[in-house]
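Here we describe the complex-level prediction in full. Unlike the single-chain runs in Section 2.1, the two entities below were treated as one system.
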Amino acid sequence: MTLSTTPPTDAPTGPPVHTLAARDVQIGYPGRTVISDLSLDVLAGEFTVIVGPNACGKSTLLRALGRMLPTAQGQVILDGQEISRYSTKEVARRVGLLPQSPVTPDAITVADLVSRGRYPHQRLLRQWSPADAAAVSGALAEVGMLDQADRMVDELSGGQRQRVWIAMTLAQETPILLLDEPTTYLDVVHQIDVLDLCSRLHAQGRTLVAVLHDLNMAARYASHIVVMSEGRIVAQGSAGEVVTPELLGEAFGLDAVVLADPENGRPLVVPRDRRVGR
Amino acid sequence: MTSRGAAEMHDGERRFGLVRDPLLRGRVLRAGPVSMRVDPRVLAVGGVLALVALAVGVVTLLTGTLEISFADVVAALGGQGEERVVRTVQGRRLPRLLTALLVGGSLGVAGAVFQSISRNALGSPDIIGFTTGAAAGAVVQIMLFGGGVVETALAAIAGGVLTALVVYALARKDGISGGLRLVLVGIGVGAILAALISFLMVRADITDAESVQRWEAGSLVGRGWPHAVSVAVAVAILLPALMALRRAVTYLEMGDDAAHALGIPVERYRFAALVLAVALTAVAVAATGPIAFVALAAPQVVARLTRRGGVLLLPSFLMGATLLAAATCSASDSTSGSAPPWAS
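The structure predicted for the assembly as a whole is:
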């Protein structure tokens, strides 16, 4: 067996700590700088959620962390080495990234789609090893879709489909998972479904980074929140430290009260109703 | 071997042979460390297509102005029998059949690749200008340098590849190609090249115009061993190369980001697949002139028969081969004057 990755069923003790960090990066698209002079350490074992107003550069940062965008300046360091020095496949064995809106292929079953997550571990003449089978069934079990493995993906609900995509990323067996707005286009029930899943994965010791739009969901689920505004990191810390009326005003231009969530005591953002006179 | 535990248990103890994995739709062909995924339904469709192609081949060898029996055809293939019969079978019917099969197959494969890269059923080479580009190359050669089989073929290849590079360069934005932009730019460039061909035709003298028109119609009449061999060489080189890229190109259909996240160097693989498929198209067009519809239809029919997505190269090859060989056969069989252009 030539696979060097750790099996998915590893106990929380043991596996080496994997690190991912951005160092003074400037990132952008031709003619437009989105992020400049930004540094971020992805904390191992944490569920980091990046929030910020539209076009603040949160997806751009995530894509750079997954090497989908090159950095114009600065470096992204993965496991002690500049990320651009790895082969594309090697990066895919260390960092999994679920993009914002992947295209569901025609006529594909749940198991077949999830099995595509094994690509970075496969070769032309090793298309399906026992390790592949174990990783795919493990990933399906983790998202609770093992009994639906034979179904066609386009027959599934939006929430189930998103769980299948997450399973594909899990089958990659990367210690670090990046999720770009995994709850977009989902109704509230399915959003909670997906975020509960993320929370479970985090509890099992995985390092997660997700970009989310919904501040309250971020405050509820994240173990670490990064607030971005205009290509910079404005604040980071636990939900209690970061989600404050002052910061919401500064980063989002939002006038809001912050209450304690009656369910769990975490911050709950209630935007002020401008129509009500005070 | 037992120390690998759960992973090993999953698909049983068999290390060799065709293994069924309860998770997957297909089977896994395993031989020690080597494992290949096979899909019985795709295999079945491929097998049936191969049989149909074979049947079409037999009928093609049996039909023509000279009546030859099955036994005589078999003998003639081995070089035995009356000299006139051997010459007809070996020198005319067989190379024309092989050219039809190989050109049809090449177009089917190219269509499958282009439709996948452009994520659009309209993205076949005859629609996005590559076929027209090859034709324009040949037309310019015939008009300006006076034709010649080999020269025309080379000009067609140059025209096809050049057109593809222009379309690719124009469709690229921020270092990314692909998708609808490729189709639209291709249609535009194809229209310009078609206009160029018409312009040259109007200016040409009558003999040049006639030979251009004959070439432009796309035909298998009079195609001999040089044509069959040139396409066979191209297929032997380009098809395996495309097969090595097949899975990555299929995964591109999930979107550039998703493919990249799985470790696929998206733009590099897309460009490589594009170049290989264009070369295949150009060599095919060089042999027979532009033949429409095969590249568009073959992958689509295959997708419906197999009920599978993705790039299915070998079934598309067999489908394209069968379509063109059957069309050629049925056309050469019609003795009336209304034979379609590729057989007239």
